[in-house]
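User: Need the bound-state model for pyridoxal-5'-phosphate:
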Amino acid sequence: MINAAMRKLGEERSVIREIFEYGNARKQAVGEKNVFDFSLGNPSVPAPADVNREIVRLVGEMPSVALHGYTSAAGAPDVREAVADYIRAAFGVPMTSDLVYMTCGAAASLTVTLNALCEEGDEFIVIAPYFPEYRVFIERAGGKVVEVPADGAFRLDLAAIERAVTPRTKAILLNSPNNPTGVVYSRGELAALAALLERKNKELQKTVVLISDEPYRELTYGAEVPYLMALYPHTVVCYSFSKSLSLAGERIGYIAVSPQCADARALFAAVCGAGRALGFVCAPALFQRVAAKCLGQSGDLEAYRANRDLLWEALTSFGFSCIPSEGAFYLFMKSPEPDAAAFAERAKKYELLLVPSDSFGVKGYVRISYCVSRETIQNSLPAFAALAKEYGL
Ligand code: PLP
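Assistant: Bound-state model below.
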């Protein structure tokens, strides 16, 4: 009577959600201020002022029936136009509005794109560590996940990627700035990947697509985030406003298919078809219009930068070893014992909630989300110090 795979997904909550729920229970038990919850990637800075201004303006000025009614399935035409104009101006690629599809955030951008691309037997390469939902999204679209480990510094291991590309490879899924490592791939790395794929396409007589999952594009602290479409023609950008505009609960993002992608128009038709099949009637109408007026903006990056610096200074001075976080709002810290889950369990004794790296597809690290208040970080430092001492660091 019930689909067993869906039931399993529903009953096995994600590790991150599990820790978050545990944190809520602990907050009830020992008080909110005494629990240091670094589990969730929920933005902790307010949306840029333009977001609220636009909401108020739209609600005040636009007739309610038009404002809240259905838009075209792919999005309101003026919104798609604004997104295409922005991409052209910001990144110098010949984007057109007829290849922009508004979505309910990156999760929808990814599921729609994967369903649009996937045929039986297709393989999708992901770089480990990776956002755990990738596996759910790819497998549900009917694809096979091929994990390629990043190199020792969590950058692209081009030789390993080259070995993983086969005649069955449909796409490579990239995420930069990266969740969970905070790494931002350099122009050199990405250009080398593009060259590798061009070579493989010729050799295998096929087109490998690059899917660029970009919910953290604007969240960097100095590093350049090259635009993949400008480096490789067969690119689909899966964008989200969840993190940049602190609108994670409002569910708004877009898919942009590069005009230079092979069969771009057919792929866009498949995107529309996948959106339809998955039941996305259209993206939220009010927030399509809000986002169109706030393209390229972000919340207070200085707050995230200050959090990152405070944590980095403290944790490294306590003897922990961390991967330099160039973007997003995550710090990837080496577990002092090989079993990261055991380490995260021990950290709970000090009310420190960290996410073991196993669910991201690598062992031996924890992810610390620094999208929390400065006070939470400051108050957590004695707990981290005590934890380091327990390990003799
Ligand atoms: N991709 C990555 C790498 C993420 O970290 C997240 C959310 O944390 C998503 C996709 C999903 O984002 P959204 O909330 O926009 O669906």
